[in-house]
UniProtKB/TrEMBL annotation:
The lineage of its organism: Bacteria, Pseudomonadati, Pseudomonadota, Alphaproteobacteria, Hyphomicrobiales. GO terms for molecular function: NAD+ binding; prephenate dehydrogenase (NAD+) activity; prephenate dehydrogenase (NADP+) activity. Pathway: Amino-acid biosynthesis; L-tyrosine biosynthesis; (4-hydroxyphenyl)pyruvate from prephenate (NAD(+) route): step 1/1. This is prephenate dehydrogenase. It comes from Rhizobium daejeonense. Belongs to the prephenate/arogenate dehydrogenase family.
Length: 309
């Protein structure tokens, strides 16, 4: 077993992200002790059954006692409440980080409560699925994926470097960004696509001229790809929308303008405009594959379906 990087890690929240971290930490032997805390007795019990940690408690305050690294993996709207609970119990010198999908809001909620003698370093692993809960996690979720840190101006360089080494051990590529910039980038690459998916699936669900059975039956076309995103956790995505409001609204208004352009091109039969856009967007897809952020095979469950057939 490799030498443990931390004596004690406390995981606050043990859903998809928390439990994936727990599984990797165990597999890689990155900590001697892993204390797990979550809000509900049912989730805590399940984490125990899955053997995700070395001890378990419903009290976040108790969990962080003596921990060298604390990772908060709860919906972003719960960040302040968690920060208040853990703050008086943090070990001096501890690193406190999070995995929240929005950063400016998490910093505003957590930073004011953090004692001066701990290192609060906000983070966001760009990895996930549409599933939630402790059963949804798996070893290797973060492998080859980016983890972005949005350090505060006074963040200790050594603590940041230690946290980066931890995420690199999980297989992540690490980067740093200003929190506002992070929120803008994520608004376009993640938040807007989810909102569009929620909207299109909602529209299809509302259509009276097309029955629900037709929507399901013929979903092998483009619609199916949207349903995967639109199946994402409602609590998490409600919080993302409410806590990255400005950047999302800015991107939505850009999106609406561009959609109006597309609408007009279709109405007036401007095929050259459509062709130019569709050619440009195809090149974006190629760049993503070349950057190793996806593979050039249709997926979204089709592989598993093929195997089943
Ligand atoms: P999840 O699977 O739904 O798990 C959420 C965890 O937070 C559970 O342990 C849950 O506890 C706890 N929790 C829920 N509401 C809470 C509250 N009000 N107060 C305290 N604890 C609460 O969520 P997840 O997908 O792991 O997401 C966790 C964080 O990671 C979110 O901030 C999300 O933005 C971020 N993130 C998610 C993804 C993704 O694709 N899912 C990717 C990157 C980052 P109980 O079950 O005990 O109620």
């Amino acid at each position: 077993m490799p030498e443990a990087m931390f004596d004690r890690i406390a995981l606050i929240g043990i859903g998809l992200i928390g439990s994936s971290i727990a599984r990797d930490v165990k597999e890689l032997g990155l900590a001697r002790e892993v204390v797990i805390s979550t809000r509900s007795a049912d989730t805590l019990k399940r984490a125990g059954e899955l053997g995700l940690g070395t001890s378990y408690t419903l009290s976040a305050a108790e969990a962080v006692e003596g921990a060298d690294l604390v990772i908060v993996s709860v919906p972003v709207g719960a960040s302040e409440a968690v920060a208040k609970q853990i703050a008086p119990h943090l070990k001096p010198g501890a690193i406190v980080t999070d995995v929240g999908s929005t950063k400016a809001s998490v910093i505003a909620q957590m930073a004011p409560h953090m004692p001066e003698n701990v290192h609060f370093i906000p983070g966001h692993p760009l990895a996930g699925t549409e599933k939630s809960g402790p059963d949804a996690g798996f070893i290797g979720l973060f492998r080859g994926r980016w983890c972005i840190f949005t350090p505060l101006p006074d963040t200790d360089a050594e603590a940041l470097s230690r946290l980066k080494i931890f995420w690199e051990a999980l297989g992540s590529r690490v980067d740093e960004m200003d929190p506002q910039h992070h929120d803008k980038v994520l608004a376009i690459v993640s938040h807007l696509p989810h909102i569009i998916a929620y909207n299109i699936v909602g529209t299809a669900d509302d259509l009276e001229t097309v029955t629900e059975s037709e929507v399901i039956k013929y979903s092998a076309s483009g619609f199916r790809d949207f349903t995967r995103l639109a199946a994402s956790d409602p609590t998490m995505w409600r919080d993302v929308c409410l806590h990255n409001k400005d950047a999302i609204l800015e991107m939505l208004s850009r999106f609406s303008e561009d959609l109006a352009y597309l609408q007009r091109a279709i109405r007036w039969g401007e095929g050259d405009k459509l062709f130019e856009l569709f050619t440009r967007t195809r090149a974006v897809r190629r760049s993503i594959i070349e950057a190793g952020q996806d593979v050039d095979v249709p997926d979204f469950g089709r592989h598993a379906l093929d195997k089943k057939a």
